[in-house]
Amino acid sequence: MVMFFFLVVALAVVVAAVTLAVVGGGESAPLPEVAPERLQDPLPADRPVGRADVESLRFPLAPRGYRMADVDDALGRLAAELAERDARIADLESALAGARAAAAHAHQAPRDRGEGPEEER
Questions:
Q1: Which of 85, 88, 66 is nearest to 77 (CA)?
Q2: What pTM was estimated for this model as a whole?
Q3: pLDDT score recorded for residue 7
Q4: How many DSSP H helices and E strands does the chain contain?
Q5: How many CB atoms lie within 10 A of CB 74?
Q6: What confidence tens digit (pLDDT) does each residue in 16-39 have?
């Protein structure tokens, strides 16, 4: 008998809770859909990406991990900047090698013409 009374009270509580949830949602419509959390691109647009920018990069969580589009966008941006830096480094190394070759050639030219320092004969 006590068990029956307990089940009736529990059923009444569940019915009341469901009724309040459905009917008591307020005078307006049901709650509006929440916009999904999107990545606010923390990578700077006005300067090159630095180490601190990459270390502070955090992606919003999605039901099964991270949003692939957000991760793909960030990785694409980083790949483009790394490719740009690699090209710039290659250009600078090429210019440095050319400058060294020109300096070595200019240093050798006076000796070839006999204009270098006088040697003891």
A1: 85
A2: 0.48
A3: 92
A4: 3, 2
A5: 19
A6: 888 877 776 655 656 566 566 666
